[in-house]
Specification:
300 residues, alpha/beta, Rossmann fold, five-stranded antiparallel sheet, 9 helices, 10 strands, elongated
């Protein structure tokens, strides 16, 4: 089965050439000439495309408006989104990145760079699906489910976790906010299984190059975003101390994950440089990201 890509551009020649280029590489290509047409195309698909590539300057609905519509839609907001555009000023690129698009490629473009970007996004998506399945199996094995020990009103909207790998004990939960009771889930056990699942798919030698993983944790009806990093440590079996930062929440969109990744990079640098940091402060920053446009998360 060929991976499906949706290409949106109001220039017929560019659309035709991109379709030919991508089909030669084995992709199934759907095309639209404006954002509103693309939304109609998406609404007719049983399965969403693996990647969306869109121009910015288009009639009726431009690329920015189209991206906003996709990123706020519950069934489409996990699709990697690339801008392919002639708008190449520093301000244009900065705006695209501020919006949270996954990549910004300017015209004229290098074919190999475009294919490499698409391939990387699809590979990451496929590995996320493998980890999803592994997490589901592990949580089923350990019979980890929701723990209705507190009322819904008493629950805090998401959990921020910091997990370190230990050569003897395996994954060890080092920090969390809020407490396990307020998170309403067995965060200690779940954090261990999330780390185990990711290392099973990526391998310990490549886990810190995972660039973040967005998951559907079906067993507990939540979503998770995982970010892996490490710092040199000769005492460790792998020559480095590996750790995982994670958010577990009712809803995390693909756009949310890109913004959270930037915060996790900041936390990661502090961990690697052994600087003091307050987990509650970062929890509040992530809450502001997740609460924007989400009826499931409300800022206290």
């Amino acid at each position: 089965m060929h991976e499906k890509i949706l290409v949106v551009d109001d220039n017929k020649d560019i659309l035709f050439n991109l379709k030919i280029l991508l089909e030669k590489r084995g992709y199934e290509v759907l095309t639209s000439m404006s954002g509103d047409q693309a939304l109609k195309t998406l609404s007719t698909l049983k399965e969403p495309p693996e990647v969306i590539i869109s121009d910015i300057k288009m009639p009726n609905m431009d690329g920015y408006e189209f991206f906003k519509a996709v990123s706020t839609h519950s069934q489409w907001n996990q699709i990697p989104f690339l801008f392919l555009t002639a708008k190449s000023t520093t301000e244009d690129i900065r705006l695209g990145k501020m919006l949270g698009v996954d990549d910004y490629i300017t015209k004229p473009f290098n074919e190999e760079d475009l294919i490499a970007s698409i391939s990387g996004k699809i590979t990451r998506k496929q590995k996320s699906e493998l980890i999803n399945n592994k997490v589901k199996d592990l949580l089923n094995f350990y019979q980890i489910e929701m723990q209705p020990s507190i009322t819904e009103e008493d629950q805090l909207p998401f959990c921020l976790l910091v997990v370190f790998w230990d050569d003897i004990e395996g994954p060890v939960l080092k920090k969390s906010h809020p407490s396990e009771k307020s998170c309403h889930i067995s965060i200690n056990r779940i954090s261990q299984q999330l780390f185990h699942a990711a290392t099973t798919i990526y391998g310990h030698d490549k886990i810190t190059r995972a660039e973040g993983v967005l998951l559907n944790i079906e067993n507990i009806k939540k979503r998770g975003y995982l970010f892996f990093d490490a710092f040199p440590d000769k005492k460790e079996r792998f020559g480095e101390k590996q750790f995982m930062l994670s958010v577990i929440a009712p809803s995390i969109t693909y756009l949310d994950s890109l913004k959270i990744r930037e915060i996790f990079k900041e936390i990661s640098e502090k961990i690697k440089n052994k600087k003091v940091w307050e987990i509650e402060n970062y929890w509040m920053r992530i809450l502001r990201i997740l609460s924007t446009g989400s009826p499931l998360l409300k800022t206290p």
